[in-house]
DNA sequence: AAGTGGTCTAGACCACTTA
DNA sequence: AAGTGGTCTAGACCACTTG
């Protein structure tokens, strides 16, 4: 089990600080040579470290050492940049697309509206210290947010909801699972198709307990850990 | 990108119900033949489906179609068998080991006790419909649970805490991240070293807000999704 | 232009599971 | 005993990134 030994060797170098967060690893061919093995086997080790969240890959660019993950509390409403700031990180959001369109099957079922109902769909890409880490897609019920597309998306959606429509997030139902990145989502995150990822789905309620929107968040899985405190019911 | 096409082909067969949950896939060599490719490429497709949680692997036994994941709410105290039952699944727990020992570094830091303090360590393996899905390790502060090892571990720990010591779980701090299975943990789960996994770490408090124990749960990542509702603070 | 990562081939041997 | 999965080798070509 050569690939386990190689994995441990690289792992130790990371833990020892010889390979710092954000650093690029040497070329695969060079690494393979220095471990006296082939690229195939080396890549097995690297994939393992990717699964563990110690390394990440940028498509065609190489392998990098993962920074400390962002601690993400789904029960917090604080917007993304603020959450990052509290943890000493720099965050930035880019608008990919915002439009009115028929709800996808998944979105319709979450929002409990008939399939193909019109909803707003807002796609955004979020960066942590200039690394793209999550693609967020919101499906928003137009009923509560007339003329949403005319608004500016420079501030957070939470802020927009509150200041323009008096809607306040008050409850969220979330779901976390693991998946893999495909197609455009992968491209936005500079990931190779099939990279492991974390999917956070949220269904959000306003202060009157109405469902107002839902969102799908595809995270580079090494970039976050979900962390929260819960009072136990019963 | 042959491996993506193969992945989609298999994926469709699963969605169409041609490959039912729990079914074993044909041998890798046969699959490779039928897709006119090599085992290496085929295995790339299979690994992708594993990352997505549609397939899982049992070490040296082959590839299987994943059943529906268990919905796991960390804010619930209900014990594991009951949680499973509510979702129409059959659960079972096996005791691997229970002993008094010096706290590991990770456990000591979570429990906020000096390194190498004596704590109880209880390792258990949990099955869902006779498939091993999670290895749970509890680190328990002896202070609140004198003579714990003399008790029977046939019922749940929650029940034991309540009935024998009057200790009631009232708050939990949890953390979810992705990782990979190694060593004994992998073996218990019948997994190949390096299989993707989900790690749930919990720090538990009693009714007086004392930390009483912590636990590390290594899940077959296709076997659960974390699902919860949260009232938003502020 | 050179080098790199992404993808793929066509084998091989071994230890283990299964019939 | 046969077949299977786990692991590994030694190449190859292409498209893309980088200097």
TrEMBL record, chains A, B:
Keywords: DNA-binding, Transcription, Transcription regulation. Gene3D superfamilies: Chorismate lyase-like (3.40.1410.10), Winged helix-like DNA-binding domain superfamily/Winged helix DNA-binding domain (1.10.10.10). CDD domains: WHTH_GntR. Coiled coil: none annotated. Pfam families: GntR, UTRA. It comes from the Bacteria. InterPro entries: Bact_HTH_transcr_reg, Chorismate_lyase_/UTRA_dom_sf, Tscrpt_reg_HTH_GntR, Tscrpt_reg_PhnR, UTRA, WH-like_DNA-bd_sf, WH_DNA-bd_sf. Residues 1-68 form the HTH gntR-type domain. This is Phosphonate utilization transcriptional regulator PhnR. It comes from Photobacterium rosenbergii.
